[in-house]
From TrEMBL:
<feature type="domain" description="FAD-binding">
    <location>
        <begin position="212"/>
        <end position="401"/>
    </location>
</feature>
<feature type="compositionally biased region" description="Low complexity">
    <location>
        <begin position="63"/>
        <end position="75"/>
    </location>
</feature>
<dbReference type="InterPro" id="IPR036188">
    <property type="entry name" value="FAD/NAD-bd_sf"/>
</dbReference>
<feature type="compositionally biased region" description="Pro residues">
    <location>
        <begin position="19"/>
        <end position="33"/>
    </location>
</feature>
<dbReference type="InterPro" id="IPR013785">
    <property type="entry name" value="Aldolase_TIM"/>
</dbReference>
<feature type="region of interest" description="Disordered">
    <location>
        <begin position="822"/>
        <end position="845"/>
    </location>
</feature>
<dbReference type="InterPro" id="IPR044152">
    <property type="entry name" value="YqjM-like"/>
</dbReference>
<dbReference type="Pfam" id="PF01494">
    <property type="entry name" value="FAD_binding_3"/>
</dbReference>
<dbReference type="InterPro" id="IPR002938">
    <property type="entry name" value="FAD-bd"/>
</dbReference>
<protein>
    <submittedName>
        <fullName>Bifunctional salicylyl-CoA 5-hydroxylase/oxidoreductase</fullName>
    </submittedName>
</protein>
<feature type="compositionally biased region" description="Low complexity">
    <location>
        <begin position="8"/>
        <end position="18"/>
    </location>
</feature>
<dbReference type="InterPro" id="IPR001155">
    <property type="entry name" value="OxRdtase_FMN_N"/>
</dbReference>
<dbReference type="Pfam" id="PF13450">
    <property type="entry name" value="NAD_binding_8"/>
</dbReference>
<dbReference type="Pfam" id="PF00724">
    <property type="entry name" value="Oxidored_FMN"/>
</dbReference>
<feature type="domain" description="NADH:flavin oxidoreductase/NADH oxidase N-terminal">
    <location>
        <begin position="480"/>
        <end position="814"/>
    </location>
</feature>
<feature type="region of interest" description="Disordered">
    <location>
        <begin position="1"/>
        <end position="79"/>
    </location>
</feature>
Length: 845
């Protein structure tokens, strides 16, 4: 039965009777707002909708905008003031105009907006504490007006199959988009900004000739950006879901996520209040679900009615309303550069971030603060902030624009990475709906990797404890210190020392370096310690310094390493990774020039196709014929037998990073026309033959894993869908887990680097196939490990560089979390160091 929402917990704002500022200084009366009337153009679809801020640390306010001062004892320069054109009258453009006009003495600022003053295509806007701190420093008057209208709340409700799970301590603030625009309109008028509504801006090239600075704040469909897309290096990505932006005439009492499981598939609702009597409601579904449900055939009125029916419980039976709302697919905008000459992109014109992580309004207003700050610095270098010489003008403006982009780009790219993770989580929502309810809620809250296990515990310890209890974690046991079983091997914890090439062998023979290196990591507490890629033949080495298992002497030395680890750190498992370099072999040691050919002493290379790794630089490999394929397969078998006799606990087949078996899998490196090339099934044939041959001689009770590159990060290469098919094939042939890496297959790849950036690929394989996965790639903290495990995205986490920085990373993680259980036992000789050493007191006592 439909239930009305529970009583609101919102703070009720007071409604100001007027905006809190008089004109700041005597100004000439600005020209009329509507200097040029034009027919309104059809509105564009909404490009973003706000969502909950995900905060991992206390907010830090940006620097205040600096107003340049006249030289001591000097007079104002008679030179003309700066002339600034702003294309687009959304919040970002308006706020930039107001901030720039506040510079002393103020530039001439003109804004063009093609729509009417009250036209807006969304409802509410969420701004974070960080953004509000920047606004307060940059313009206290705007902050004071916003503060009067904000509604605030702390909770997130996740509704999963009829159960509402609430997590508190998050902290949100929102207000209506129309109210925000009104505040900014009045602020611009008070400061003397020229506002032109229902008016198309002149072409950007024309503006650039007559103005010192042109700010393109004209949104995701920016005409300014499109006119110079090649200069800005624009990349547009349209995503898999359709969404519609609606409103309800009541206030949710929390940020609400709700899932509707229908005969057509899964749809989701994102809802939050933006006024005491109004909420934003966004309904979203994958494209195929949207079409199967017939939503693609409905107009705005029918779409609104249908969405209200789908989420009647969430709405308490109330209706929804639109505002020229239409279904659209979110588009991510990325630009290689944000400015050209004296024209700069701001807000959605420069970058977009999916509404499930943060609003474009938030990013645009932060852009405005940074741009005004750097332009103030530019003007401070000129007498009284005026510009006189045209060439000097443009040079100084260019310096300011370069500084603006340098400051903002890292923050924006970080937000876009988090937004990409979040939107992909919602695209794949159907993979998670069968999770237990609390795990599902935890997974949703940590989807972007910005909110973590430890951070969420700080916000709502009771919620995290309930999630851990549902997952049947032993009391006081972090997720990373729970055991995991692979075939006959039980790992004492979920931490893996990732394979890392050391380039320190002689003729394939490991030495004392490897004993100390791997022995130290075994003593450091990880559940599984992996060797570097161990090569199956002399010709299969990457460099002369790579280890092998192609000679009896190798077997004996590896046995010494394994026995030391087992004896010195009982419970540690040692794994060997077997591989063949393929076309990436016969190169220098990494620190001498990675992927550079040897200057002398080269050996012949083999690959599926005669394609060099770096055209014109690398050696051209020989395409393997039938005899060559059989010979390499037997080399893997012989190395596996030696690995078993050496006592390794686990064997991993290296089918990633562009080495031999990987280059069979990728269409970019496999151009064969025989049975081993063409379709994905054909490209899989040889790696599977090698896997089967190794599995046959590897002890039946010992696990085998396979490492794959889940994407080539290059057009025409392996895709995420391909990776699922590859993982499924290896699992069907007996792989006990898939080690999911990415890239390094072609030199012109474009990886999307970032914190734990490869884990979504592992997540999808695990939850789509039910196959255990090892996640790897920029996982650097124990908090990340706990978050990924408790959310059910991965089974094991492999860390490389953190274990180079700290061989005892796992034991130190246990000490920092106060864990002393069986998942991380300290070796007896080290037990005295199991507590963090005391540090000096600040008072010197």
């Amino acid at each position: 039965m439909t239930q009305p929402p529970r009583p609101t917990r919102l703070a009720q704002p007071t409604q100001p009777t007027q905006l809190p500022w008089p004109p700041e200084r005597a100004e000439p009366t600005p020209p009329p707002e509507l200097v040029q009337r034009a027919q309104p153009t059809p509105p564009l679809p909404p490009t973003e909708a706000p969502a909950g801020r995900e905060r991992a640390r206390p907010p830090q306010a940006p620097r205040p905008v600096r107003a340049p001062q006249a030289p001591p004892g000097g007079r104002l320069s008679p030179a003309r003031p700066l002339r600034i054109a702003v294309v687009g009258g959304g919040p970002g453009g308006l706020y930039a105009a107001a901030l720039l006009r506040r510079l002393t003495p103020g530039p001439e600022v003109t804004v063009w907006e093609r729509n009417a003053p009250d036209d807006t295509f969304g409802f509410g806007v969420v701004l974070s504490d960080e953004t509000l701190g920047g606004i307060e420093h940059a313009d206290p008057a705007v902050y004071a007006a916003l503060r009067e209208d904000f509604v605030r709340w702390d909770d997130i409700d996740v509704v999963h199959r009829g159960r509402t799970l609430t997590s508190g301590g998050h902290g949100f603030a929102a207000l209506g988009r129309r109210r925000l625009l009104r505040i900014l309109h009045e602020r611009c008028r008070a400061l003397g900004v020229r506002l032109n509504f229902r008016t198309h801006a002149p072409p950007a090239a024309e503006l650039a000739r007559s103005y010192d600075l042109v700010i393109a704040a004209d949104g995701v469909h920016s005409a300014t950006r499109q006119d110079c897309a090649d200069v800005f290096g624009t990349r547009l990505t349209t995503h898999r879901c359709r969404y519609i932006w609606l409103s309800a005439d009541f206030a949710f009492d929390a940020f609400r996520f709700e899932v509707a499981e229908t005969e057509h598939g899964v749809l989701q609702l994102h809802g939050y209040p933006y006024a005491p009597d109004a909420s934003t409601v966004i309904v979203e579904a994958r494209e195929e679900v949207w079409r199967r449900a017939g939503l693609d055939r409905l107009d705005e009125r029918e779409s609104t009615r249908r969405c209200a029916e789908l989420f009647a419980d969430a709405l308490g039976g109330r209706p929804l309303r639109g505002n020229r709302s239409q279904w659209t697919a979110f588009r991510t905008v990325v630009n290689e550069r944000w400015w050209h000459g004296n024209t700069v992109l701001l807000g959605d014109a420069a970058h977009t971030a999916h509404f499930s992580i943060g609003s474009g309004t938030k990013l645009a207003m932060e852009d405005a603060v940074a741009l005004a700050d750097h332009l103030a610095s530019c003007l401070a270098n000129h007498p009284a902030g005026h510009l006189a010489d045209h060439r000097q003008d443009r040079s100084s403006v260019s310096e300011a624009l370069a500084a603006y982009e340098a400051e903002r780009r890292p923050a924006v790219e970080s937000t876009q990475r988090a937004a990409r993770a979040s939107l992909e989580w919602f695209e794949n929502l159907a993979l998670y709906v069968d999770q237990p309810p609390r795990r599902f809620a935890f997974n949703l809250l940590t989807r972007s990797r910005r909110v973590t296990h430890d951070n969420l515990r700080l916000r709502d310890a009771a919620f995290v404890t309930a999630v851990e209890r549902e997952a049947e974690l032993p009391p006081d046991t972090p997720p990373m210190f729970t055991p995991f079983r692979l075939r006959g091997l039980t790992l004492r914890n979920r931490v893996v020392v990732s394979p890392m090439d050391m380039y320190s062998a002689q003729d394939g023979t490991p030495g004392d370096f490897h004993l100390v290196h791997l022995g130290a990591r075994a003593l450091g507490g990880a559940g599984l310690v992996m060797t570097e890629m161990v090569c199956v033949s002399p010709e299969g080495r990457i460099t002369p310094g790579c280890t092998g298992l192609y000679a009896d002497v190798h077997e004996g030395v590896w046995r010494r390493v394994v026995e030391f680890a087992h004896d010195a750190s009982p419970g540690t498992a040692l794994g060997v990774q077997l591989g063949h370099s393929g076309r990436k072999g016969s190169t220098r040691l990494m620190w001498e020039g990675m992927d550079d050919p040897l200057p002398r002493g080269n050996w012949p290379l083999a690959a599926p196709s005669p394609l060099p790794y770096r055209r014109g630089v690398s050696q051209v490999p020989q395409a393997l014929d039938t005899a060559g394929l059989a010979a390499v397969r037997e080399q893997f078998v012989a190395a596996a037998r030696r690995a078993a006799r050496a006592g390794f606990d686990l064997l991993e087949l290296h089918c990633a990073h562009g080495y031999l078996l990987s280059s069979f899998l990728s269409p970019l490196t496999n151009h064969r026309t025989d049975a081993y090339g063409g379709t994905l099934a054909a490209r899989l044939r040889y790696p599977l033959e090698v896997f089967d041959a190794v599995r046959e001689v590897w002890p039946a009770d010992s696990p085998m894993t396979v490492r794959i590159s889940a994407t080539d990060w290059a057009e025409g290469g392996t895709t995420a869908d391909d990776a699922v098919a590859v993982a499924a094939a290896f699992a069907a042939h007996g792989a006990d887990a898939v080690d999911v890496s990415t890239g390094q297959v072609v030199p012109d790849e474009r990886p999307d680097f970032g914190r734990s950036y490869q884990t979504p690929y592992a997540d999808r394989i695990r939850n789509e196939l039910g196959v255990p996965v090892i996640a790897v790639g920029a996982i650097s903290s124990w908090d990340d490990v706990n978050s990924l495990l408790l959310a059910g995205r991965v089974d094991l986490c492999a860390l490389g560089r953190p274990h180079l920085y700290d061989p005892h990373w796992t034991l130190h993680a246990a000490a920092e979390q106060g864990y002393t259980g069986p998942g991380a036992p300290w070796p007896l000789p080290y037990r005295a160091g199991s507590r963090r050493p005391p540090t000096g007191r600040a008072d010197g006592r």
